[in-house]
Amino acid sequence: MHPTARFRRQLLQAATFAVILVAVIGGLSFVFGIIVLQYAMGGLVVSSIVIVAAIGLTVLYGIRGFANFAYGDLMTLGAYLALLLSLNGLSLIWGAIVSFLVLAIVGILLELVIFARLEGRGPVPPIVASVGVGLIIQNGVRAVAGTAEWIYPVPASQDIVIVSGLGIHPVKGILTLAVGVAFVISAHVLLKYTNLGKAMRATADNLELAKATGIDTKRVTYAAWAVSCSFASTAGILLGLGTAVSPTEGFDVILLIFAAVIVGGIGSPYGAMLGGLLVGLSQEMSVPLLVWLERKDVIGLQFGSNYKVAIPFIILIVVLIFRPWGIAGRRPAFARRSYLIERVARALAREGTAIDTSAGEADGGR
Amino acid sequence: MATIISSEASNQAAGRRPPWSEIIAFLAIAGIVVAGVLAGALAGASPQGILTNVGFYASIAVIFAVMALGFNLQWGYTGLFNAGIAGFYLIGAYTMAIAITAPAPPIVIGGIPVYPGHLGGYSLPLTAGAILAMFVSGATAAVIALPALRLRADYLAIATLAFASILQVVANNLQSVTGGAIGITGIPKPIEFSSADAPFLNAITIVGIGSAILLLLILLLEFMAESPWGRVLRAIREDEEATMALGKNTFNYKLQAFALGGALMGLAGALFAVTLGYVSPSSSFAPAVTFSVWVMVIVGGSGNNRGAIVGAFLIYGLEWLSVQLKDYVPIALATGLPILRSVLIAGGVAAVVTAVLVVVLGRDRPTSIWGRILEKALRRGWGRSAVIGALALYGMGWVFVFLEEHAPGAIGTTIFYLRLMFIGVLLILLIIYRPEGILREHKRVLR
């Protein structure tokens, strides 16, 4: 394998990012103690769930060009399917596999029945339809399974203590992390080394060009739906493992996943991985800061840690202002800059031209 | 000559064709109210109780209509998709509550805080509170839209959705401002009645005030839509690049439309706070509110103000009816299940026989009566809508039978979820088959 210049540059960027991340976390834990590492661990676990979901969402977003608001509810559906199977005697692993496959079929059906009819009508009609799908799934689950929370039938276990004060749960922690890593690797293999993955990347990049080179974009679309929805099922099961399975578990995290997708750059699976890591880590690691803000002598914020869900939103807004195409996405040729930046740039340009003209006059006078 | 005359006559006939969809919509609203009244009467409510209930329906429907008008301004006219209507609604309600209530200090009993208190207690007049609510909501809408307006429509949708769900968290947790999970109570009514029929009189006052506001709003919005400003908004919706090329600062127009729409949603929130007399971070501000407003505007036809109001009365009417029928439906189902099932089976057989007849007889003979029926059922917009509606009703009938057989009495508890599922189905069907709505926007031709 001959690494291209682009590949080497990406590798360098990834390595830089990793080093900065490790340095920041290490520095923080050196200053504030081992508790920071515990939060970072929690953040990594959340990230691995978010990354699985975000890859699925972004693949579909890139190829079909709309934000699937039903994604969270598809996660819920996957979690409940696995729950149903595991309560009826199947082991959770088999339940997860069956749910993975069933959700892939559900995705293809959704495209066939609903979303194929909305192609070429802009981004809003599919969003509306996907909200409809989400409402049906979420309330269907409520009507059938009730609003109570369910726990997967997995053997109870204690945290494994690594150092005193730093522990990790074998199922909620290690298993989730392992599944997350496995999905990242399999997504990488799928996208980089298979014909389908290459076709998917080409279609996401430029639909017309992909068609012109003879790619069966219809098939690619179905594959994208299958991949997207089956990733959703696994993410939903992981989410349910971490806390409990409830009808709104997916809808409650959809914001986090959208933030990861947009931060990473829409349609870019590698960006989604980066975005998921950033969003998940920052959400969990903001907890000690928010708890600190709760103190009476600081600002006395009540229930500070509940605000952690706002952190991804803040990151999202900042990214929308400064880099709407995402931190890893490619800047479109005619990207409009955001309003504030535009204003600042214009003001600077005006100043610059003023200086230039005065310089020119000075030159002319000489 | 004869052909010209006949074509003119047919043109006139087409021009004078009765507005069927509007008549049907009004009949449906009337039917909803009658059904609600009947359900109340059968459950043994007093006439006054029933009237109060209808008044409650009308007042909440007016509130939804104001919200639908706001969303119509944003989406119907300008093409800006707002997924956080509930958030602006919440801001309006809380601003109103904070502005007009009397001071409410924290209550601590035996060292345990029972009520955290809330910000404000300024006892402002109601109009000042409403104006403040509109202003705060509109300003927030402008700030939220600022980073997302230059980007594609879905960025705005995601940003507003995120904003609305964060606001719910804030309302729940920022106790010193919002009163936490308990919320803000004791919001004064426009007129305080002390007699026994105070709830009824209150409902009537609210409906009166709301209708006046609605009338004013629709006059104002129609005027604005016809003005040059409104024309620019519609031009942006149709083709933003072209509008830019004509030298319009589309960003400013979009910002204005979005902020104005947000202000209307804030006004709706203010009305809601006064109507209920309390605000709390409950399901009143859940994302389902946003989705209901979407359905209302899509049903009414985006870009059509009157349609938005009709849609609000229709869709909220369905929600209200589901609450009214909640106690009655299980009893009726339990006794009438065999009848319902035989009706469904007979209807299904009859429909299948008719469909087969129509298809077999009409497929190869398009000029025969069967052929024309087939043509109308498949090609015409309303024909297809009728077929789909009948199929949906039929399916719902079987769902009811199935549910009642397998889980008796479950309908009563799940009717709320069934309603939201129904809204979901409606969203999908409308966006696929009737994106222009049931009451369409009047096509404006160059005059």
Describe the overall structure.
- The complex is a heterodimer of chains A (366) and B (447).
- Chain A is 73% helix and 2% strand.
- Chain A is built from 13 helices and two strands.
- Chain A is globular and about 60 Å long.
- In chain A, helix 2 (35-64) packs antiparallel against helix 11.
- The longest helix of chain A is centred in the first third of the chain and has 30 residues, at 35-64.
- Chain A has a two-stranded antiparallel sheet.
- Chain A has two domains: 38-331, ABC transporter involved in vitamin B12 uptake, BtuC; 336-366.
- The N and C termini of chain A lie far apart (61 Å).
- Chain A is mainly α and 366 residues long.
- Chain B is mainly α and 447 residues long.
- Chain B folds into two domains: 21-325, ABC transporter involved in vitamin B12 uptake, BtuC, CATH 1.10.3470; 329-408, no CATH class.
- Chain B is 75% helix and 2% strand.
- Chain B has helices at residues 2-15, 20-42, 47-77, 85-100, 126-148, 153-173, 175-178, 198-226, 228-238, 240-245, 250-276, 287-300, 305-325, 328-362, 369-379, 381-406, 410-433, and strands at residues 107-109, 112-115.
- Chain B has a two-stranded antiparallel sheet.
- In chain B, helix 3 packs antiparallel against helix 11 (250-276).
- Chain B is globular, with a radius of gyration of 25 Å.
- At the A-B interface, helix 5, helix 10, helix 12 and helix 13 of A face helix 5, helix 6, helix 12 and helix 17 of B.
Any descriptors?
A: 366 residues, ABC transporter involved in vitamin B12 uptake, BtuC, 2 domains, two-stranded antiparallel sheet, 2 strands, 73% helix, globular, disordered C terminus, B: ABC transporter involved in vitamin B12 uptake, BtuC, disordered N terminus
What is the CATH topology assignment of the largest domain in chain B? Answer: ABC transporter involved in vitamin B12 uptake, BtuC
N-to-C span of chain B: 28 Å
Secondary-structure element series of chain B: HHHHEEHHHHHHHHHHHHH
**Unreliable stretches of chain B:** 1-14
Average the pLDDT over all residues of chain A and give the rounded result: 84
